[in-house]
Amino acid sequence: MRVSQEIEITPAKVIINGEPVAVKEKGEKMLVELYRQYANDYPKFFKMDTLCRLGFIASEILLREEQVEAVILANRSASIKNDTDYLSTITGENYYPSPALFVYTLPNIVTGEIAIRHHIQGETSFYILEDEQQLEQIIKSTITRHPSPILAGWCECSGPDTFNAKLQIIWNN
Amino acid sequence: MIYCVGHSIISPLGEGTQANVEAVKAGHSGLKIYTDRFESVEPFCASLFDTPQEFVPLCIRSVEMAADKSEILKSPETVFVVSTTKGDQLDLLTPAKEIAQHFGNPNLPVVVSNACTSGVCAQITAMRLLEAGFYRHAVVTGCDIQTKFIVSGFQAFKALSQEPCLPFSPERKGLNLGEAAATIIYSNQPSDLSNRSNWALVKGSIHNDANHISAPSRTGEGAYRCLTDVLAGVSPADICLLGVHGTATLYNDDMERTAIRRAGLQNVPMSVLKPFFGHTMGAAGVLETIIAMKMVQNEKNVHVIKMLSGFGGVNAAIRLQCE
C-alpha cells in the first residue's frame, strides 16, 4: 500500500500533505471558508450536513489532480450530529419531520456525495469502527481488489464544531 | 470463497430459520396496519414484533441460534460484523461491542452502515477479512428495530404505503418497514463446523450510481455493474434464483427492472420478500440471503444472487454457490 496524498482537517487546522494551510475561521465556518477557496462552484454544498461538508471538502482538495475508483470511509459516531438535529424536528405534539434532514441521517451519504461530485461509480462503503487502526485492516482487505487508487480514511462529526477528518489517496502498489 | 456454517432468523413471522421459511412457504405475512405506534400521525403498514424488542438482546439471541458451538464465538480467530442503520437508539458501535463481549470475543466488531445495502455489504466485508487471512470465522448479524425516528422520516419522504406493499406492481404505493434480526456465520474452512449448509459466498460487488443521494439511477447503473461483477465466471442460465430488493417504491423497482434486463437476468426466477417481512433495513441483506439459500434445492453448482440498493446511491450484490 502506498499513500500519494493526505489531508487532515480539525475545527482549528488543515494540513495538506504535511503542510499546514492558513485558515481564518474555525469549526463549521472554516469548512465554508475552505469551500470558497477550493470549490465554490457547487451550491449543493450548502444543503449538506456537517459530516458531508467535511468529507466533501477533504475530497475536493485531494482529488484536484488524481482520480479514484472507490471511497471507503469510517468513523465512531455514525451520523449522530445530524440524527440529533433531525430528532429535534420530531419532538413535541405537532411535529413536521424534514425530509431534507432525514436523508442525512445515514453516515454513508457522505460517500454518495463524493461519488456524485467526482463521478465515482466504483465502491462506496461506510464503516463504524473503534479507531483508524481497525480501518487499516478493512482497507488492506479491500485494496487488493482495486488496481486504481482509492479514497479512504476517517470522517467524524459529533457536533457543529466537533469534527475531524483524515483522508488519503491509497494505491495498492 | 467462504462457507456458510450457520444461520438464523428472528422476525415477527417466527423464531429460527426453519420457522420463517415455513411461514413464507405457507404465505404468511408479518405485515399489519398500525394506527397508534410511534406517535404516527397517519396509519402505516409494517411488520413489527408484538412485544417491542431491544437491539442487543435480539442480536444476541440471533447469534446464539445460528451457532452450534460457542467456542467459535469466543475465538480470537472470529470477528463479529454487524449490519445496521440505526443500531440501538442511534448508537451503532457500543451495541456491536456489547454483542461481541457477551460471547467473550476478544476482537473489535466491525459495523457496516451502508444504508439499505448494509446486510449484503457486511457479508462482502466478512469475505474480504477472511480471505485476507485476518480471521477464520465471521459472525454477520443484521438487525434494525423500528422507531418514531425511522417511521416519521420515511413518511416525510412519502415512501411508506399504508397498505401491504406490492413490489413490481403498476399499483405499488411504497414500502412497508419491518423488524428482524438475522445471522449468518461464515468460515474459511468448509469442515470447521458440523452444521454447514453446503452454501458458499463466492463473489460480492458494491457500486455507486454517482447520480443522486436519495433516488436510484434511471439506468440502474450501479446495480447493473454489481450484477455483471458477480456473474463473472458463470452465465445467467446458471443462476436459479435472483433475490431482488423490491421495496415497492416507484423508483426502486423500475431501477431494478432496468438493471436486471441490462445484465441479461430477465429470465431468472426472482424472489421478493418484502410482502412477508417488510423492509427490515440492516437485517434485510442477511435475512433475504438466508431465505434465498433455503428456497432452492441443495444441488451441486446451483447459484443464487442477492441484490440490494439504498440511500447514498449505493448498490450491492453477492453470488452464493451450493457446493
Low-confidence stretches of chain A: none
Rg measurement of chain A, Å = 16 Å
Strand content of chain A: 25-35%
Greatest interface by residues involved:
A-B, 47 and 48 residues
Give the C-alpha Rg of chain B. 18 Å
What percent of residues of chain B adopt helix (DSSP H or I)? 25-40%
Structural class of chain A: alpha/beta
Order of helices and strands of chain B: EEHEEHHEHEHEHEEEHEHEHHEE
Number of distinct helices of chain A? 6
Strand content of chain B: 15-25%
Could you state the oligomeric state of the chains shown?
A: heterodimer
Task: Specify the CATH architecture of the largest domain in chain B.
Answer: 3-Layer(aba) Sandwich
| Number of structurally distinct domains of chain B | 2
* Distance separating the two termini of chain A: 5 Å
What's the total count of β strands of chain A? 7
The CATH topology of the largest domain in chain B corresponds to Peroxisomal Thiolase, Chain A, domain 1
- Give the overall shape of chain B, derived from the CA principal axes: globular
CATH class of the largest domain in chain B: Alpha Beta
The side-by-side strand order for the widest beta sheet of chain A comes to 3-2-1-7-6-4-5
